[in-house]
Design brief:
Helix content: 40-55%
Distance between the termini: 26 Å
Number of strands: 3
Number of domains: 1
Order of helices and strands: EEHEHHHHH
Structural class: mainly alpha
């Protein structure tokens, strides 16, 4: 199973600045800023490999991506003490294929 989603929050991060190619510049820097204690809200980054997978696999997403996003949302909810999924009325990522948004450079 590939890791498609990396979380950050509460002073911890699964990624860091050295993972720029995988997490993109913003994702890598958010992870790094969180690790050094800057006030960054919790969140998660979907890797650039998802975009590659999408285009190499007939415009489909990896089968385990939704579960990894849900797990990441649960992580963020735990830190914030709020149920975010109940507040999301339209989540483009879970329902609509928008690879261009994922693939911005």
């Amino acid at each position: 199973m590939s890791k498609w989603v990396y979380t950050f929050g509460d002073g911890k991060a699964e990624g860091d600045a050295s993972m720029r190619n995988l997490l993109g510049g913003k994702g890598a820097n958010l992870a790094e800023m969180n690790k050094v204690g800057l006030p960054v809200p919790p969140g998660f980054t979907v890797t650039t490999e998802v975009c590659t997978y999408y285009y190499n696999n007939n415009k489909t997403y990896p089968a385990d991506l939704k579960d990894q996003v849900r797990t990441a949302l649960s992580y963020v909810e735990g830190i914030m003490g709020k149920n975010l999924l109940m507040k999301i009325t339209h989540c483009w990522f879970l329902f609509v294929p928008v690879p261009e948004f994922l693939c911005r450079v």
